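Example (one chain per record):
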Amino acid sequence: MKQLAALSFMVFFVQVLCFSQNIISEAPLFVENGVLKSTRITVAFNQNVISTESGVTLVDTLRHPIRNTGVKALLRLLSTRYGPFTIRKIIPRAVWGDTLVRNKRNGRFSRVPDLSQSFSIAFSQPMPIDSVENLLRALPAVKYAERPVSIGLATTDPYFSQQWNLQTIKAEQAWNITFGFSALSLLAGFKDL
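Predicted structure:
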């Protein structure tokens, strides 16, 4: 019990020192001259645009050629405008057309969505995320194109101002310091025993 408390205490301070932001994002998002920029975008195709075998994470376009001429031309344009980029397969084990799975309980086959054509494109330089997103979405072969996901950490509780206990313990400032740790809530439960 003392070891768990010591470990939780150490983890809490590591989080305080390392994670003092109040926004979490899978890639940096920032505004430059009024334009939202990032180095990453996620795209999924509705057809077999980049065919890879199971287990491939980093896509080599020489080994795995881009089959759609519109996508190929757009990626060439993006490379010219914003510099080199890498393409990573989001679900490496997914293979095009592998959409039937057997239910382990009843032995029946079920159709699942094809996830083999979901990719993350990481640019070496920040690019205007809105314009790249719109260019990709305009292609018929694109199922979706999305900017990096960002999560803001702030209270949306309309009764926060009436909860004196949260203000007393300075909860809002704490939410800006740490994202929480499951062992800490476990310790709070043990303290009541």
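Caption: Strands lie at 23-25, 29-32, 35-45, 58-59, 85-89, 100-102, 109-111, 118-128, 142-146, 150-152.
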